[in-house]
Design brief:
It contains 12 helices and 9 strands. The chain has 343 residues and is an alpha/beta fold. The mean pLDDT is 93.
Length: 343
């Protein structure tokens, strides 16, 4: 819940990681069920934390896409119920725009506002998109044609026995390996050169694993996960040989360099770009943060805080404020749009 565009009154997040971890990834039916189970207590806690009631609200915002249909329906339907019962306007928000506004909001809080036009890079488990962000709206510059970058992190981590979500484990272990030990090549895009493809990299890691007979060490890591669902860095290092650390470091370097290469090409293509916004769950990756900051192309780079990098309600509220000012309200017939685009 936010006030005056930048003042966060409350932020409550209900994580489903433990629910999905045993299946090695997100199960849509379970995600919908957990949304349904959590939404009432989460909203109640957020209201109590902010010290407000439904009648104190100016508007109610909800994500209507893109995303899993069932989960979107739970949130949107509950927001409609509040809107109807309290007589407050409903605002529907694009999930990807929410990630961008999380950065815009925090930059304004710090007194270093995001200057437009900006290059906005959204990197998460479900999305890898680049936009030209201007006051008048967004232009899609490039997107993944297969796996998102965060999805590639998690699939590779699962492949070598780090469990789900494995992206943070790869990031934690990457500094202990040689990022130049294994050379991976990325696909050359036909058509739009700013599009991404990470499935080939994932397949290359699979071939490396198969050629190095890692069955025994993967079994050891899976056993560790059964004993300690959240192993420490020390525990991971004890069951991860140097060759695997080199694999992890080389994989992360390849993903980061691919993102940087596209970002550089995009800044050359976008006329007058004045800043870079990086958001989404992978924005927490320390390797990506360090590389983008180091190679900022002479532009200010804005990242969200870790708490606002992953999915949260504050970013949706932040993205709703400009719509609220413009009076862009939705009616109760608004529907969930799993494949909603931002352009």
């Amino acid at each position: 819940m936010i006030e005056d565009e930048t003042r966060v009154l409350s932020s409550v997040v209900s994580s489903q990681l433990a629910v999905h971890a045993k299946y090695g990834g997100v199960v849509p039916e379970l995600a919908s069920r957990e949304h349904l189970r959590s939404i009432v207590p989460v909203v109640r806690e957020a209201m109590e934390m902010a010290g407000v009631g439904f009648q104190d609200l100016d508007a109610v915002a909800a994500t209507h896409g893109p995303g899993l249909a069932g989960a979107l329906l739970v949130g949107l339907t509950y927001a409609k119920a509040i809107s109807f019962a309290a007589g407050k306007p409903l605002i529907t928000v694009n999930h990807i725009e929410g990630h961008i506004h999380a950065v815009i909001m925090e930059a304004a809080q710090k007194g270093t506002p995001v200057e437009l036009p900006a290059l906005a890079i959204i990197v998460s488990g479900g999305h890898t998109h680049m936009f030209e962000a201007r006051a008048a709206g967004y232009v899609l510059l490039g997107r993944t044609r297969d796996d998102a970058a965060g999805e590639a992190f998690d699939k590779v981590a699962k492949l070598i026995g780090f469990g789900y979500p494995g992206g943070p484990v790869i990031d934690m272990l990457a500094p202990y390996g040689n990022p130049r030990e294994i050379r991976f090549t990325m696909a050359k895009m036909k058509g739009n050169r700013l599009d991404f493809s990470f499935s080939g990299l994932k397949s290359a890691v699979l071939r490396w694993v198969e050629s190095h007979d890692m069955t025994a060490e993967i079994a050891v890591r899976k056993a560790l996960l059964r004993e300690a669902p959240q192993p420490s860095l020390k525990q991971w290092l004890e069951v991860t040989p140097k060759a695997t650390l080199d694999l992890v470091a080389s994989f992360q370097r390849t993903v980061v360099e691919e993102l940087l290469r596209h970002a550089e090409a995009a800044t050359e293509q976008v006329e007058g770009v004045r800043s870079i916004v990086v958001s989404g769950g992978v924005a927490c990756n320390s390797g990506l943060r360090a590389a983008v900051t180091e190679k900022s192309m002479g532009l200010p780079v804005h990242f969200p805080s870790p708490g606002l990098s992953t999915d949260n309600a504050v970013m949706i509220a932040a993205a709703a404020f400009p719509k609220f000012r413009r009076g862009e309200f939705a009616d109760l017939s608004a529907s969930a749009e799993p494949n909603l685009t931002l352009a």
